[in-house]
Amino acid sequence: MPAPFFTASLNGRLVSLDEAQVSASDRGFLYGDGLFETIRIHAGRPFLWEWHMMRFTDGSKLLGITLPQSTGSLLGTVHELTDRNGFPKSVVRITLSRGTGQRGQRGYAVSGDETPTLLITQHPLPSPPSKPLSLVTTTARVAVGDPLAEVKSANKLGSILAKREATAQQADDGLMLNSNGDATETSSANLFWVESGALHTPPISDGVLPGVTRRLVIDLASALGQVVREESAAPERLRQAEAVFVTSAATGVIAVGQLDGSALGSHPLVAQLQAAHEAKLARHAADHR
Questions:
Q1: N or C, which end of the chain has less CB nearby within 10 Å?
Q2: Which pLDDT value is given to residue 104?
Q3: Separation CA 231–CA 218 (nearest Å)
Q4: Strand pairing class (90-100; 45-46)
Q5: Which domains does the chain have, with CATH numbers?
């Protein structure tokens, strides 16, 4: 049963979830003209906040959307919201839309006088899967070198398509390829694989979102003496890998057990990285007692 997160933050003001409504002319609603961050709440406080804010502010600058609060003020709002709702283990989503412009204005052109909309909502932390994930390759595609691929955009139709196709095939998630036919990520997670004992992940330039947990895992691997190689890979290469796993802010490090119906192996490095991620969460909790 979903946790009862009755309070949200709309434009810096705590309101009931029912009151958190945006205008029918909001460009985020009309065009997906915005971006968002999904941040894990652990021990009542956001995990890897600074890294999330670096990506969020970089994305807002690329899109030309002014963040109406400083990141320091935004952190205070998140604390106030999570303290009000409770649930020290959860997820917050921060959504920034370009908002509304002149009355009656429509079309893709940006006037520069839009008033941004900033919405923060809190959600249950997903339960960890009981077994390794199953993935299927989908028809969803991203363009190599597309600068928008590096933004956690409010337009996620590619991810929705990948997830729908995976669900239709009774798989846990869908693998998205790029315009070269190489694997990039799943609908909601970054991708890693172990090959000849070494850790690999697709490069950002392949059309990959620079995931915060991806960045953390690269650091954790380095602490374990593992250099992560950023290389392009077709799905067939993944099927031949020693192990495959995915990473996301909400779920951490999750093993993949099947790709396109082919069983995948396991490798001790995956369990080591899962343990290192849990240890990082434990240190975060200790720092916020």
A1: N
A2: 64
A3: 14
A4: unpaired
A5: 7-124 (3.30.470.10), 133-285 (3.20.10.10)
Q: Given pLDDT bands bounded at 50, 70 and 90, which one contains residue 1?
A: very low
3-state secondary structure the chain: CCCCCCEEEECCEEEEHHHCCCCCCCHHHHHCCEEEEEEEEECCEECCHHHHHHHHHHHHHHHCCCCCCCHHHHHHHHHHHHHHHCCCCEEEEEEEEEEECCCCCCCCCCCCCCEEEEEEEEEECCCCCCCCEEEEEEEEEECCCCHHHHCCECCCHHHHHHHHHHHHCCCCEEEEEECCCCEEEECCCEEEEEECCEEEECCHHHCCCCCHHHHHHHHHHHHCCCCEEECCCCHHHHHCCCEEEEEECCCEEEEEEEECCEECCCCHHHHHHHHHHHHHHHHHHHHCC
Q: Is the pTM of this model over 0.90?
A: yes
